[in-house]
Each structure stands twice: as structure tokens, then as C-alpha cells.
User: Fold these one by one.
Assistant:
Number 1:
Amino acid sequence: MKILKVDHIGIAVNSIEECKKLYSDILGLSHAGNETVNEQKVTTAFFPVGESEVELLESTAPDGPIAKYLEKKGEGVQHIAFRVENIEEALAELKAKGVRLIDEVPRKGAGGAKIAFLHPKSTFGVLVELSER
Ligand code: ZN
């Protein structure tokens, strides 16, 4: 498998609107827009930073994965995403090497990306997302 770059850093927040004040007004990053991914019960907001992006994640439902995360751990870095050349190939290779996968098959992420998560139990406590676009 080939990792091309850190695609983005996912940060769970209670309110994108509130958090935008920091990333736009104070840190001076441009807001590339919001997108709601209904299957994940999440709205995302992207702020490009050089080759990577900051992704803010706000839950759209009390039973969504981000709502559960916020309940348990509060706001903060939720995942790190690596851009890979070929996500199916990467998942097959990782599985063969004994890495626990949350998604055996890629699903649809924001921006039309194909994404899959690795289990934090296999990645020293970090929720790792693979992304191909
Ligand atoms: Zn992400």
C-alpha cells in the first residue's frame, strides 16, 4: 500500500458555527464549505492547510457516532486520515497483516471520497481513516 499524505485531521465539536470563529476569524484559514453525510449522521466543515485539511465534525443526531464520541470524550481530535493510492488494496494488505478493520469495504465519505476506518485497538489508540479520492 502507498500512503500519499495526511489527508486531514478530524476534530469533533459541539458546534461548527462556534468553532468556525477560531479557524476562520482567529487562525485565518479559509472555510471550504460544509457537507452533511447522512449515513454517518454528521456535518463536516473543511479548512485547507497546505497539503492537508482540518475537518470539523458536528453530529446531526443524538445517536450518531460523533454524538457518542462527544459524550464520552468531549471535544477534540477524533481521527487522523491518510490519503492512499488504492483503498481496496490497502485494506486487503492491512487485513492480511492482522490489523483490525472497522470497515472491511470502503464507504462514502465527504467530498465523494472512499473512506474506511481502522480499529484504534490495532493503531495504538488512534482512530485512523484511510481516504482515496
Ligand atoms: Zn475524516
Number 2:
Amino acid sequence: MDIKKVLNEATKQIERCSSQQELQNVKVAYLGKKGKITELLKSLKDLSLEEKKSTGAKLNSLRTDIDDLFKNKFNSLKVKEINSKLKNEFLDISFPPPNLIPSKVHPISKTFDEVISIFGSMGYSVAEGPDIETDYYNFSALNIPENHPAREMQDTFYIDDTDKDNKPYVLRTHTSPVQIRTLLNEKPPVKIIAPGRTYRCDSDSTHSPMFHQVEGLFINESTNMGDLKGTLIEFCKQYFNVQNLKVRFRPSYFPFTEPSAEMDIAYEIVNNKIHLGTGDLWLEILGCGMVNPTVLENCNVDTNIYQGFAFGMGLDRITMLKYGLTDIRSFFSGNLNWIANNGFSIGDY
Ligand code: PHE
């Protein structure tokens, strides 16, 4: 057996390898279970005791030599790979970005600003409440008792922590709890809107688990359903910039308003584009009604003196309608190209 020859051959093959994978293949061919050296070691069993001793020792040192060759080559290949990575993936952090993407205002932010400005001009102030609510503010105080089917109208996200009533906290399913917070803190007359984030366990092209609503609440001694309709029609005319906007109010049910209605606006598709305010198709944009006296009483408001209306409008929905956007999920994609194409410059205001 020519041990020198085997060593020479192995040295050559190892030298020729230019990648770690290639080297690994050669290693298997020599030192693997069925490799050359392994086979040679196996053949020792056919030799005499004397030969076994001398050849065995030689084979063992051959195996160690070859193993060292592999180790050295692996290391040098690794260094080479790191060096070439360092060279090719060089990053100059002081280099200016090639395409400066101009900052844009998100369509939802623009809608927030417009909603606040339009209702602001009608005398509404802005109120706020927390996104994480108690069961009481989100449901019970709004006349949605436990085990009431109305609770299932809104697929709620519950939080793994309980409040002082031992009820799990919820991500608010609507902005209506701000009605309660405001009425408990302020004496009527009250005239507020509450724009903000809301959450429901629902997701498709027109529903997002996190979405936006604006709540409206107007309580005084005489406000009636006619005022409610006038307010909402005026808002839509201004927001959608359409003077003759066809709308309808459909009777509906909410535990916290009585009577209750939903407002739809008319639209039609002209040349593949949505046209608002005319036509025979209807899109629901909000729920509203006269505040249920039970809710006012829950907030210690004297219902012999005070009454009023409330509404809750989907801000994502009206934004999509206004700008002809079809997938609510695009609002929350965080895609810079999307915002570059669909966002607004401050100058557009
Ligand atoms: N909170 C209701 C919803 O999210 C909307 C609404 C608000 C209805 C105020 C009536 C009065 O569906």
C-alpha cells in the first residue's frame, strides 16, 4: 500500500477546492464511512499481527495528516469567504440615499384632520379615551348587558388581565365609551367628537382588526333627530365635496340609542370609477340615533332636562370611498411606495 501516493493525491484534491461545499465532498470521499482511508483501515483485519502493527500506525498518522490538511483548508476558505463578503458588502453609512422619498401625510391622517376641522366649524370639541377599555365603559354603561346578543355584534379582543370589577380589559370595539367618559366628567351641554382607533377580531379587504372611528355626541335641552340628520348630511357634503349628495337613513338598532339609524350614501360606477352622491347603489358609513335615556342615567344626567344624539362613523370606510381605494389592508402595510403614491403633501391641505 503506497501511503505516500494516497497523501499526495489527497493534498492535490484538497488544494484544488475553491468552496467549503466542494471541500466537504472531498472530505467525505476520504474520511467518510465509505471513504478511502476508512476502507484502508478496514482492510487491516486481513493482515498478520506484525503487519497490522506497522501498517496500522502508518494509516493512523496518514488519517491525522489528511485531517489536518482539511482543517487548514477549511480555515483558509472561510477567511477567503469573509474577506470577499467584506469587500462586496461594504457599506458606507455616510453615503446619501439614492432616492429621497418625500414625506407624505397618510390618507387616514388627512381624514382625521378634515373630520376635526369640519366638526370643529360646527362647534364640536375633540375628546379622547384609552384604546384599552374596561368592560363597563365599552359595554355595560352603554346599555349592553352581559349575555346580551349585542355583545356578539362586535367580535371583541379581550386582554389577559382583569379590572377592579374582575372583568377582562378589552381593546375598545368602538369609540362609544368616550361618550360615557365625557358625560361622567362634564356637565351638559356637551358637544364633542372622539376620533380614534378601534379594534375588532375581523380581517378582509374591507375589515381590519384595527380601524378608525369618529364618535359624535351632542347633548343639550332640545337637540333632536332632525338636527342629527342635518349635521351628518352637512358633514358628508363638506367631506366628500359634493353639494347634492343623495343619502338615506335606515332604521336600525343599537342598545345605546333609541331610535337608531344607519346612514348610507348613494354611489354609482361611471367608466370604472366610483361616483359618489348619485346612483342607485348604497354604502353604509355610520350608525347613529338619539342617546338612550338609560345611557344618560348611567352617567347621572337628568333626562327630564337633557337629551341629544350620538353617531359613530367608520373613518377608514369614508377615506376609501373618497379616494377610490379598495383594500383597507393597504392603509396599514407600511409600504413606502404606497404612501408615496397615495399620501398627501402638506401643500394639498
Ligand atoms: N358604536 C356603534 C358601532 O360601532 C356606532 C354608533 C355610535 C351607533 C353612536 C349609534 C350611536 O357600530
Number 3:
Amino acid sequence: MNMTDIKSMNIEELSSLMTQLGDKPFRAKQVYSWLHEHLVTSYDEMTNLPKALREKLSAYPITALQVADVQVSKLDGTRKYLFCLSDGNVIESVLMRYKHGNSVCISSQVGCRMGCRFCASTIGGLTRNLMASEMLDQIYRIQDITGERVSNVVVMGTGEPLDNYDNLLRFIHILSAEGGLHISQRNITVSTCGLVPQIHELAKEKLQITLALSLHAPNDAKRQELMPIARRYSMDEVLDACRDYFDKTGRRITFEYSLVAGVNDSDEDAAELCGRIRGMNCHVNLIPVNPIKERSFVRSTREAVENFKIKLEKCGINGTIRREMGSDIDGACGQLRKSYMQKTESEK
Ligand code: SAH
């Protein structure tokens, strides 16, 4: 980690920084609270700190994202934020308002190198990992701008979170710790395309977060067509890693299954999927695929989606059809960022 990135430091690291700066450790608690509870973006706002300390701290810049664009859905109030990072890269985050509270979907990387065929976020490849502070600040800025408490966080935006493992763990600990936003780990979901060694590592951490696994296919051959990562890890290995996660944490796994017409949405696909995951403590989230213009995938019909769900339920597997949010604003994940980058590119 970047040793001057103060917003990525946990309370222990901040305490040793205070000692290093010749100040009292209790100041760490004050600074931490300003950063992670009051969400301030400058040392000037930390009014209970002595001026001398604020001056010393100016060598530790506070990571804060700048809003580059916001789109608001007229249908359901969903907001998509495009944020500019200090190096000029842009990322997107989404605020969804539900009856049970506000949920923010964050990005974990600038771009992605996993190459899933239907996904817009991966088309330009990976630019870089996000620091823990940059993941946190997506939530902080949205809470600050709206003045509404964020109660749920899903790491389902651009990027593969388990490909940025250390920063992800740091992010989860700071987000759920007392003295910060203190969001319960049970209200945090991390979605992965299935990096098997990292899932086993994560299981050992015994966190209470929900693991969402992007399955999208009932067998290896079909999964490999959609997701290059499936050539590295077989479905058996992925499902074993999920069982390990459940055994160690007691947390039910969510499988994500994006339905593509004529590719993975038939009765046979549903039956095969049931055979693979029956008996696991799991839940299947069915997502009618969001077509992107770079690819020719077609969304399954409403009827095919409903039918798929019924087939799963007949095998005793719980399924929900993901309610589409903000469908009137730049569609699938990564599309707002892509259209912004194309726009700025053409203005050059
Ligand atoms: N890299 C992680 C998280 C980011 S994507 C992962 O793969 O899980 C979040 C979810 O959206 C994943 O299940 C992903 O496969 C799915 N997804 C991406 N693009 C999509 C699209 N165009 N339509 C439907 N689902 C999509």
C-alpha cells in the first residue's frame, strides 16, 4: 500500500503515524473519526486538532474523489456517479434506493482483466487497482452528497475484487469497523468471477460478508465460452471453493446467473445447473443479460427467465430475478465510464 495514503490506514497504523509525528496516539482516533465518520476532505475541517499537527499531516494527502458526472433515473431514483481519481482515471458507482435502505455498488479496479464476454467493463483491459481509500470514498462521497445513510454495499461494479485482494480486505475492515461508517459485514457483498485460491483465502478470514459467485453457466464448456477464467478453474474447483467458504463462515453463497438467449437459458441448462448445485446452501440471482453494443448477446425473454426460475424451484433451489434498476440511464456496468471516455477521446 501507498504509505502516505492516510484514508487507507486502519486505526493501529494511524496511531503509529501519530507517534512517528511526535504526537499523542489519541489523536489517531480524532483523525480517523473525521475521515471515516464525518467524511471530511481536508485537514482544515479537523477543528479539534492543533494547527502544528494539521501542518505535519499535510504531507499525507487525503484521497477524495471528484464527481465528473451524475445520471439520475426518472424511473426509480437510481443514481450513477462518474468519479475522477487524482491521476485522471475515471470510475463509476451506483446508488440504488430500496425500501430496506440505500445500497451502493462500487468499482474495485480501473478496468478489468478477466475478459468476460458480455461485460462492458473489461473491454479496455485493466488500468490499475483501486486503493482501499478509493473504494471507501465512492461510498463516502455518495453519502455526503445525498445526505442519506448508505446501509448496504455491493462490490459489483467495474473490476474483479479478488484480483485486488489486499486492498479489498483493508476496505472491508475499515468500512465495517467502529469509528467509521460501521456498516455490518452482513450488509456487504463481494462478487467474483471465481478466483479459486483467493476464495479459499477469503474463507480463512472468517468474515461475515456475502460472497456472490458469477456462475453464468451449467457446465465447463458453456462457462468457458462466456468467461475466460473458466479455462483456468473448473466448475468443480469453483463450487468446492464455495462449499469451503460456506463451511468456514456459515454464510450462504449467492450464485449470479446472467441469462443469454439461446446460450444458457434452456430447460436442459436449468436441469444441469440444479444437478451441480443441489444440496448447497445457496441462492441463485437470475440477471437477464444487459446487451452491450460491442457484442451480439441477446437478453432472454421474460418468459424464459420466469421458466428458468420455476425449474430451479422445482429442484428446491431458491431463485430471484434481479429487478432492473435505472434502466433509462446508461445500461450495464461500465457503460457510463465507457461512454464518457469515448466522449473525451473524441474531444481531444
Ligand atoms: N468481477 C466481478 C464483479 C463485477 S461484475 C464478477 O465477475 O462477479 C458484477 C456481475 O455483473 C457479475 O456477475 C457479472 O458477470 C455481471 N455482468 C457483467 N456484465 C453484465 C451484463 N452485460 N449483463 C448481465 N450481467 C453482467
Number 4:
Amino acid sequence: MSYQAPDKNLLPRSSVIINGALSQGSGISLPHIYPATGQVTGDIHLGSPADIDAAVAAARKAAPSWRALPGDKRRDLMFKLAALIERDAATLTHLCAVENGNAISGTMYMSYDGAQKFRYFGGWADKIQGAVISTWGGPAHDYVAYEPYGVIGAIIPWNGPFFATTMVVAPALAAGNCLVVKAPELAPYSVLRLGELFIEAGFPPGVFNVVAGGPDIGAAMVAHPGIDKIQFVGSGPTAKKVLRTAAETLKPCGLELGGKSAVIVFADADLQFAAQRGLSGAISANGQGCVNGTRLLVERPIYDQYLAMLGGIAGHIKIGDPLDQSTILGPVISESALNRILGIIGQAKQEGGRIVTGGERLGGDAANGFYLPITIVADVANDSNIAQHEVFGPVLSVTPFDSEEEAIELANGTAYGLGAYVHTQNLSRAHRMASALDSGMIHVNGSGEGMTPCAPFGGMKQSGYGRLGGEAGLHEFLRIKNVWMGLAKPQGA
Ligand code: NAD
């Protein structure tokens, strides 16, 4: 396996963008490690809480005029940004791959999808409408208005930073908010490059601010009195810390958290299609996607056949250099993540899981990177660790089921409720399953194709609350105001 070197000329020139100016953070420096080779691509000068103060001040200063800017003007700026993202799609694709090892065959999609989100939500910016409501009692004009919060703080994880950032920023901007975004310390490049494009697109200074940083920066944002709402994208344990801090100021928080999404394959499914989608959906973002279908539930009569199909397809998936167009699967984010995943696989074996393929770190010329081949663990009990918790690597657990009722019970039998995927050719069963599954996103005969900017995305149970995407996503960033105006004639008039 050979590796192309990351192009250092494409790396962003700063780690902080505040009030339209590029600079370096005033916190500690952290080397950025390229997961494919374990080599350092550069030093990230992380932001400090003082940088958050400056970013919030800039956003607060910009907020009144951004809110007052007519919707069509906000729309035009967002369309301009979308065009710049498309112009620079190759660079963004490269940065998305370098920052966390995601293969460019997948990150190309993220770049274009980001542009589409700014187009979709730009289209909403001039269509935010309230309502006149009927009144009780005397003559009055009673209406509902939707208004921006002011300043939104967005906390972004490392596994798909560009995707997550555009998912939050596009609706928040369209709604008339300014933003302070925390770019993840492990993978900050694409979000910082996006910040440069905001400047080029001509957004007023302070509307979009970025600070690359770690947990201290996130905590400073949640505690900051100048931030009106937090949109957090990350894990459940961190979300609980966020909520505890937010309780001090009663700050509203939207939570997009992890998942343990089931893929339910019935015997009547198009098996070849289901196996291909089952595998590609599980390993997208190198298996480090919140909504990946990593928990396969397969109807018993086809269980062995389906496992054999999965194993066969896995053998043809190209693993290797993320910067090679033909690579499908890259490395996981870090050495420690890889060791954690290997520990989960070891435990699954002890608990009766059977390794169909994979299970060992890749050696040879891949040994310096953090590579795990596709790992399929069959005969997994639904209450075991590997079936209950996020693995965050290219690891699928497989469990048989005997009836539709059992499939529903198993699928709903985790603390999460982000996605669920059903493969069947039986239409009424598909509807029954969609109704019975406790997940925010259900795909029938698919593996994520419906996750478009116009669809509401978000979780149930411990996968979070709030929605990003679609009209619901816009309303996450709007506050409701009711105005009642008495119309009675003054006495004596
Ligand atoms: P994480 O929870 O460890 O960190 C998320 C972000 O929170 C990071 O930027 C981190 O620096 C910050 N943070 C850490 N401590 C904080 C604190 N006390 N206060 C405020 N911020 C703090 O998650 P991760 O490992 O970066 O990302 C992976 C997780 O994110 C997985 O659980 C994945 O499923 C989830 N995720 C969810 C979605 C979604 O849309 N539902 C999308 C992507 C990732």
C-alpha cells in the first residue's frame, strides 16, 4: 500500500477566525496526526476561553444587523457561499480526508452536500412567516412571529466536521442568527477552510466565527452568557456534561448524539442489494458515523446465506490510502480508538460472538496508520456490549431473528434511537416496521440516501433531541413570539 502525502499548501492558514480575521488560537498547540500514516501534518494552535470571549463579542456585535438584513439578501450571500464551496470542492474534499482519514470517495459527497445545504436553507431565508391567530375576547390583532435567537454556539465532533457544521450553520444563518463554531481539535481543517470562504463570500464580519479547540472551549461556550443557544453534535456522555453546564443559565440546547442503528433484513428482501447497502452503510466514514447501520438483524432462514454474502462483499472493499479515489475504507481516527475497538471485538468473542471476517489490526505497510479491516461479528446477543454501544469503527454485529415482532423488539432494544434500516419487499410490513421503530430516521430499502438537506434529521431516546434539516431544522434556530394588540376604540373616541 502506498500513501499520497497530504498537500500542506491546502491546509488552512489559521486556527481561529473571529470578526472576519484569521489568527492563531491563544491556547496550547496540538500536533494534528494524519490517521493513515500516523504522521504530523501541522501544529494546531488551539483557542482558549479568551478566544471564545472575543468570538462571542464579535457575533453579538454583528447580530442586530444580520437579523435586520432582509431575507433575500441573506439568501444571496448563502447562495454565493454555496458556489464557493463547489468551486473549492476538491480542496475541501482533500481537507475532509486529511483531517480524519475519511476516504475521498466519501468526502467528495460531503463537500457538495455542504453546498446544497446552503442553497436549501438560503431558499428558506426569505420565506420565514408568522401567523395571525384568532383571538378570544375583545377586538385585537393577535399574531405569532418567528425570530432568531441571536448567537448560536455550535459544538462539532471530529468524525464528520464539515457535514455536521453545514448541517447546523445553514439553518441557523437562514433564520437570522450569528454563529460561534467550535472546530474539533482532532479534525479542524475543513471547518476553518469554510470560515475562509465566508470571508470571501462577503458575509459581514462576526456573522460566522470559528475557534478550533478542545473540551475546555466547548465548556466555555456552553457557560457563556453571550450565547443564546447551543447546538451540540457529539456523544451522549459529553451531552450530559453540556446539559449540566447549560442548566446554570437555563440555556436551550439541541442535541445530535450517537446511535446504534439497526439494519433489519427480512427473507423477502433483495438480498444482494441489502448486503451491499448493509455493508456500505456500516462502513461509511470508516465506520465512524453516528447513523451508520452497524447492528444487523437478519431473519433466520437467510441468516447463513446473508452472512456469506456480506463476507464476500467485504473481501472486495478496497482499504488503504484515503487520498486514492478507489479507496472505500480508510483508517480510524487514532491509535487509542483502534485499541478501544479491538478491545470491544475481544470482549464480543468472549461473549460468544463469531468472527466472520476481520478482527485484527492491519500490519505491513499499513502498520503506521490506524487500520482495521471490515470486521463482521456473527451470533451476537442483543444485550452484549458490542450490540448495545457505539463501536465507532468498521465493525458490524449480526444477530438472527425469527419474527417481525422479535425484529422490532431487538431493533428498539438499545438506549439509542437515531436511525433504522429495513429491507423487505412487503409494503405493508415496511409501513408496520416504520411505525413501530423508535428512531428518528427510518430508511426502507436504503442506507442513508434520504439524508438530504430537506429531510429532518435527529434522534429519539438517547440519540438526542431537536432536528437539523428541513423546515424543522430551520425552526430549531427560531424563537416564537406572540404579539397581542388591542384594537378597541379609546373610550370617548
Ligand atoms: P464527544 O462527545 O467526545 O465530543 C463532541 C464535541 O464536544 C467535541 O468537539 C469536544 O471537544 C466537545 N466537548 C468535550 N467535552 C465538552 C464539554 N464538557 N462541554 C462542551 N463540549 C465538550 O464526541 P466525539 O468523539 O468528538 O464524536 C463522536 C460522537 O459524536 C459519537 O457519539 C457520534 O455518534 C456523535 N455524532 C453524532 C452526530 C449526529 O448528528 N447525531 C453526528 C456526528 C457525530
